[in-house]
Amino acid sequence: MRLLFEIGMEENPARFLVNALNDLKNNLSKKFKDERIKYEDIKTFGTPRRLVILVEGLAERQEDLNELNMGPAKRVAYGEDGSLSKAGLGFVKSQGVEAKDLEIVETPKGEYIAVRKFSKGVETKSLLSDILKNLVLELEFPKSMKWADRKFRFARPIQWFLAIVDDELVKFEIEGIESGLESRGHRFFGGRFTVSNVDEYFTKIRENNVIIDIAERKQMIRDMIAKNCTGENEVVLIHENLLDEVTNLVEYPYPIVGTFNSDFLEVPQEVLIISMEVHQRYFPILDKNGKLLPKFVVIRNGIEYSDKVKAGNEKVLSARLADARFFYQEDLKQPLVENVKKLETVVFQKDLGTIAAKIRRVSKLADTLIDRLGYNDVREDIQRTITLCKADLVTNMINEKEFTELQGLMGADYALKSGEKETVSLGIQEHYFPRFKGDKLPTTKEGIVAGICDRMDTLVGCLGVGVQVTGSKDPFALRRAALGIVNVIINSNLNVSLEELVDKSIEVLEADGVLKRDKVELKKEVLEFLKQRVINVFTDMGYRRDVILSVVAVAWDNVIDTKTAIEVLESTVQEESFKNLVGIVKRVGNIVKAHKDSSVDVNLFNEDAEKSLYNYVESLDKEVDSLLSSKNYKGYLNEVLKGEEVVNNYFNNVMINDKDEAIKNNRLSQMKKLNDIYEKMADLNLIEG
Fold this sequence. Notes:
The chain is flat, with a radius of gyration of 35 Å. The mean pLDDT is 94. By secondary structure, it is α+β, with helices and mostly antiparallel strands. Helices cover 49% and strands 14% of the residues. The protein is built from 25 helices and 18 strands. The strands form 5 sheets. Strands 1, 2, 3, 7, 8, 9 and 10 form a 7-stranded mixed beta sheet that branches. The protein has a 4-stranded antiparallel beta sheet with strand order 13-15-16-14, with helices on both faces. Strands 4-6-5 form a 3-stranded antiparallel beta sheet. The two termini are 51 Å apart. Strand 17 (347-349) and strand 18 form a beta hairpin. Helix 11 (379-388) crosses helix 15 (445-464). The chain has 5 domains: 3-61 and 123-207, no CATH class; 65-119, no CATH class; 214-331, no CATH class; 336-542, Hypothetical protein af1432; 563-686, Isoleucyl-tRNA Synthetase, Domain 1 (Orthogonal Bundle), CATH 1.10.730.
């Protein structure tokens, strides 16, 4: 059998559509499972006005129920007098049966009471009414509404239900809305129609100018734009997120090219693009060099071109761009630096004070980082960047909440037009990089230092006043801040200590009088928070998880050194000689888990193998310290690999658990000292294999 179910409604927000269809599919699948109804496939379709679900290969009947539910052991279920105990009575009640229905089942563990249940499967059609009704009532949205005199809630008012299995109506009703065999086509280019079977629905819905398949609508937009909307050396800027949204705003897409006054191009093109994409859901048109042209594409919900639609959208966009140009021209009437004093009135966080206070802390932290990195030649420019980096927050363009996505970019533009250095201007924009995963990273010393110190102040400051980060709650984007710090350090190859930066940030926050937590506990939490982000970044870079964890378990404070160690270890673990060593390393690690002493008494040696291992370990200890101090991780691993024969000889000839407690402990100490060497660069016990 085939089941088709359509929920028709007023236009649904685009962001609700995909999740609602996924929930419908998952919920229906669960209901079929609970009802023992087999099916081959469930497909979903959707537009702003409808949610559609198609079930293929639906079984005509439930599967028969034949199950044996086991209860407690017989000796527990019955008392000495042969009557049911409290445990036995509880099982009988839970199963909805009587004592006479119980069976005694022999199992490998003894005799148990049980209840056998059998019921013949009923026709699927007899169950579909309740299934579909509950499917609607149980569907949840981020925001729901009630309408008219109805009590149940839905994303938007429901207008109709179409429910058909093969060629039969599935009858149900929800507060006066009855299911039927009628559907509706496009609001403006279609009409009402009735279907007599599932196939007819798919034919008639298309005849009524509705493309219900989301993927098909999306591809139609791409194809029609490519065919009809670009001239020579032109390209339409299509961001996937916007394409997804527009796809779910229409039932039949028709791209139309509009234009706007080229005078608006005096405004930075990023502002104009944001106006088009975010506010109007238009696709900008660029030339082959990526420069914005005074043209755009609007996706009409219709089947044909319309001058009225074109003119209407051009008029709306012109008003938007006029606002943007007004804000821009007003902002340019004074130098960017004049906005800095206004930051004294803008609160960053209620316990951490204003943005101006934050900038002062970032400036102090930056002095430490500048010293460590040897950036003294650009200290003045870095500090100027920090002074100005948040000044655009109080400009008309940003403060009006219309263009908040342009923080940094507008500051950079205003700074340049105010006569600031180009590197300062670029640093203002770059200190926000990366803004999201995969975003570009800063290239200037100004942007690098300002970005790291700004994020460190946010991270340490927020945790320092008790801001909680949970799996679903991160109000100040502290994870993103920490990831940004790590990514910038790696990309810029900075030889810097994260712990030192955390210490300095805590010191600055304490001097500012805003810390609310114990410094030792705060430092511990911040470092652990950063450590997890270091692991995440290296994992995203594609390194082996066990290699990352083994290196980070020993040292991760200098991320560049950590990266080098990970790269060397990942290369080495592929070598056959290292694979042979893994077993030895793990064996040594397991032996000394509970042994803490590594002092060895040579006078307690009874075997030549003990002496050989001792001489090897003493020599190795001195050698690896020298290698690791010079960051020669490959040299360290090579030296460790040389000891395979010596260590194997020890295990073959020495019984560690000697009857003499002193000898036993001395041998354990030998293992402990060897294990300590294995953990100098990385915890090699964590390597898989």
